[in-house]
Write a structure and sequence with these properties.
The structure holds two protein chains of two kinds. Chain A is built from 21 helices and no strands. Chain A has two domains: 241 residues, MetI-like (MetI-like fold), CATH 1.10.3720.10; 233 residues, MetI-like (MetI-like fold). The model of chain A has no long low-confidence stretch (mean pLDDT 85). Chain A is globular and about 65 Å long. By secondary structure, chain A is mainly α. Chain A is 75% helix and 0% strand. Chain B is of the alpha/beta class. Chain B has two domains: 174 residues, D-Maltodextrin-Binding Protein, domain 2; 150 residues, Periplasmic binding protein-like II (D-Maltodextrin-Binding Protein, domain 2), CATH 3.40.190.10. Chain B contains 14 helices and eleven strands. In chain B, strands 1, 2, 3, 4, 5, 6, 7, 8, 9, 10 and 11 form an eleven-stranded mixed β-sheet that branches. About 4% of the residues of chain B have low confidence. Classes of the chains: A mainly alpha, B alpha/beta.
């Protein structure tokens, strides 16, 4: 059977991920004795879960109408809009926060507008500001996951529904698709928000908005209590495991089956045109205005960037490509293995990196590597590996529902035709998964490009990546240059993302 | 190039340098070693005198430098550590990793400062910085600030050294009354950021009227950007200081070279680079004086600074007090 090598490879991958994620926390725990939680830590845990739940709920609730409207309308610039709407997810956190503040801040556009019409200004700082920023980041991800889901519904099902004059398209066709894709999307978003640090603190307005990640930061930086950091990391893993289990409960595999790949022009219900137009315009404004602010603020200093920035940019590009290749291969292997043999453990290992604290991962790796090799000698490979690890869950989430549908629809046919191994991958899997693969690889490349990862802990002289240079510039009063370097970072990430995404959509049947 | 090739290339580069001349490893924070920081000029100046090579090993900030050192312990490859501040020195001393200084260079700090293990290389006064075109009548004390409607953005003392400096400032100025000051300040605080750069970025964006930074911050805008719109507000309580120090590790196999570097760091040549790269006061004013523009800065009449042992003793309780007062 061709199944066995796949299952073994997937098992080994899962083991490697678990070693990296859990092993690093263990490496920290081994540094010190027992640790205990303070009342402040409990309130950090409560706030962390609360903001993550709210952010997830709003992101998903808004993604459904947005994806649906985009699915059933065709208008000029639709493809470009879908592509651009993916961009917020790729923004480095602090860049996105500053972009959001241009619109919603104390002296932002919204308050200027409110003031002009005599309405009292609103404050973005607090729980709702945190949720707003998280929705800004994650709505695009959820929308794209759902759009992929809609695309995967065979056109024949919609036709059949029309022929049979089914009373509710939503209930019979769209709801099953949502049951297959939405819990996974929600899970990813929940886990992203779980480890939020800069957003939660900067927009949270004060220590009330303390997250677990800040508590970890404090434990490692000022208190140097690695045992405490490991304990807090263990709590993050526990929440992650609970979330994965819960989401699996709600997931129903899609039973819509295969179709003939006819391109689908969904006939939109009459009279809802205005409603869809409003949804699309609101979504586009919400996601694109802050991006536009990032563009405007970065442009002036762009021609004057020091050479170091361009060197870092080149370094970051090839690191992002290497990391995306790693991540895509791993995610495809895990998604295929889980699709064939639904293993909860494999799925958990694929989602586990999302719950890992960047600082714990970096510090743990540092401790593990250092006895044998100088950290700066492995700075770049380690960063590539960690960035691949961090983007794996998103890729997996995109691939899994479709790998599952593919397996259900084509596995018997493939077996009957003895299509196995490389030919099966080449003629069945890759073409049929081209859309999520393209999107996922693009996402992985862009995420690794923008992620600070562990480079700050490992980098020696002349090894800085672009995100690290952005951070260094803004730490030295050079906010204009930092904004320009951030713009460069966003532009490069987005180009990588767009190339892969378009490539995938082009290659899809 | 494949990552492993690149890693090997770096590895061999390191070895080549080592074969030619002794390498002095200096552990410091990112912005010190950055292209625009004091690091490159100091390395160049020192290398011209020592027939050696400086290699900077970097960590995010002063606290990250110390936490890296604690992880590495006596096996650290660093010879010299540059960039701890006086809220961290006691904890650094307690590791037992630092050797006594070979010589103590004279300094011009506004308060007497000597330490057997640590040599100050620069210092600054914390202050609230504002835009003097928008705010014409800045508050003159914490109490005035708390009574005003002004909005400020500050750094979190749990993740940032300036944030911790502010907590120490209030503690030093108000002692047992500090919790009340924080309660009164709560409604002035727009938000608390994880580190200095986010706070300063928010301030420049117009999100707050004032930001916790240094009295020397306006010098950056004045000298580097020809922009005189930023000022620091003098506070009647006095201003808490941040003193940044350097020390050598007992585990270093290059003790004389490390001593030589510390002596160079205290010399005029190195000290003269500090004001326009680190934007702080040099520990010893160089013979040619401070750069033009520094004379426009405010000079607090009263300087506040806990001794390292006091700072270490106060830290945890003061941060918890801050947290409780602002969590209401």
């Amino acid at each position: 059977m061709a199944d066995r090598p796949l299952q073994i490879t997937a098992g080994l991958l899962a083991l490697l991920i678990a070693t990296l994620v859990l092993g690093t926390a263990l490496a920290l725990a081994s540094q010190s004795g027992g640790a205990s939680l303070h009342p402040a830590d409990w309130s950090a845990i409560r706030f962390t879960i609360l903001q993550a739940l709210l952010s997830t709920a709003f992101s998903c609730a808004l993604a459904i109408p947005t994806a649906r409207a985009l699915m059933r309308r065709r208008f000029p610039g639709r493809q470009a809009l879908i592509l651009l709407m993916g961009a917020p997810f790729l923004l480095p956190v602090i860049v996105a926060v500053l972009g959001l503040l241009t619109i919603y801040g104390r002296s932002g556009l919204l308050n200027a507008a409110l003031q002009a019409v005599g309405i009292a200004p609103i404050s973005i700082y607090g729980l709702w500001g945190v949720v707003l920023a998280h929705v800004f980041f994650n709505l695009p991800l959820a929308t794209r996951i759902l759009l992929n889901g809609w695309h995967a519904i065979p056109a024949e099902r919609f036709r059949l529904a029309e022929t049979l004059n089914l009373p509710s398209l939503f209930r019979h066709i769209e709801l099953p698709m949502l049951r297959a894709t939405l819990p996974g999307a929600a899970l990813s978003i929940f886990l992203v928000c779980l480890t939020s640090f800069v957003v939660a603190l900067t927009l949270g307005g004060g220590p009330k908005a303390t997250t677990l990640e800040l508590a970890i930061y404090q434990a490692l930086r000022f208190d140097f209590d690695p045992g405490k950091a490991a304990l807090l990391a263990a709590i993050q893993f526990a929440i992650c495991t609970a979330a994965v289990t819960l989401s699996a409960r709600f997931t129903l595999p899609s039973a819509l089956g295969a179709g003939l790949d006819r391109s689908l022009v969904l006939r939109a219900p009459k009279g809802r045109k205005a409603q869809d137009a409003i949804v699309i315009t609101a979504g586009a404004l919400f996601l694109l205005l802050p991006l536009f602010a990032v563009l405007i603020e970065g442009l002036p200093a762009l021609p004057f960037l020091p050479i170091e920035v361009w060197q870092a940019a080149t370094r970051s590009i090839w690191m992002a490509l290497a990391s995306a290749a790693l991540s895509t291969t791993a995610a495809l292997t895990l998604a295929q293995a889980t699709a064939r043999k639904g293993s909860r453990l494999l799925e958990l290992s694929a989602m586990l990196p999302l719950s890992a604290s960047g600082l714990v991962l970096g510090t743990g790796l540092f401790l593990m590597v250092r006895p044998y090799i100088r950290p700066e000698d492995v700075a770049l490979p380690v960063t590539i590996l960690v960035n691949a690890l961090m983007s794996l869950p998103f890729l997996y989430r995109l691939l899994f529902p479709e790998a599952q549908a593919l397996h259900a629809a084509y596995d018997r046919l493939a077996q009957a035709m003895a299509l196995t191994g490389w030919p099966r991958l080449r003629y069945l899997t890759l073409p049929r998964l081209a859309r999520p693969l393209g999107l996922g690889t693009g996402l992985a490349a862009a995420l690794s490009m923008g992620d600070l990862g562990v480079i700050a802990l490992f980098a020696g002289q002349g090894q800085a990546t672009l995100p690290l240079v952005v951070q260094r510039l803004s730490g030295a009063y050079r906010m204009d240059e930092a904004a320009a370097a951030a713009l460069l970072l966003v532009a490069l990430s987005f180009t990588l993302f767009a190339l892969c995404d378009l490539g995938g959509r082009r290659a899809a049947p | 190039m494949k990552p492993i090739h690149l890693a090997l290339a770096f590895l061999s580069l390191g070895h080549m340098a080592m074969a030619d001349a002794p390498v002095l490893n200096v552990l410091t924070y990112d912005s010190f070693a950055a292209e625009w920081g004091p690091g490159p000029a100091i390395a160049k100046g020192f290398e011209a005198t020592c027939a050696c090579k400086i290699n900077y090993i970097t960590a995010g900030d002063g606290a990250a430098v110390l936490s890296r050192l604690k992880m590495e312990g006596a096996t650290s490859e660093a010879d010299v550590v540059v960039g701890l501040d006086t809220t961290l020195t006691e904890s650094a001393r307690a590791t037992g990793l630092f050797a006594p200084l070979a010589a103590t260079a004279p300094n011009d700090l506004p308060v007497p400062y000597t330490d057997a293990n640590f040599e100050p290389f620069d210092w600054g006064w914390f202050a609230f910085v504002y835009d003097n075109t928008k705010l014409t009548n800045p508050p003159k004390s914490f109490k005035e600030l708390a009574a005003s409607n002004l909005k400020i953005v500050i750094e979190d003392p749990r993740s940032s050294t300036p944030g911790l400096g502010l907590v120490m400032w209030v503690k030093d100025a108000y002692g047992t009354d500090s919790a009340n000051i924080w309660k009164d300040l709560a409604d002035n605080i727009v938000t608390v950021t994880p580190s200095w750069d986010e706070a300063y970025g928010l301030f420049l964006k117009g999100e707050a009227d004032m930001v916790l930074s240094y009295t020397t911050s306006p010098a950056y805008h004045l000298i580097a950007e020809k922009d005189a719109t930023k000022s620091a507000a003098p506070f009647a309580e006095g201003h808490y200081m941040q003193v940044e120090v350097a020390g050598k590790l007992a585990s270093s196999k290059q003790q004389p070279l490390a001593d030589q570097f510390l002596a160079y760091l205290a010399s005029d040549a190195a000290q003269a680079t500090i004001p326009t790269t680190n934007w702080m006061y040099p520990a010893k004013t160089p013979a040619e004086g401070l750069p033009k523009g520094y004379e426009t800065l405010i000079k607090p009449l009263k300087s506040l600074l806990f001794s390292p042992t006091e700072a270490e003793g106060q830290r945890q309780a003061a941060v918890e007090e801050w947290q409780t007062a602002l969590s209401k």
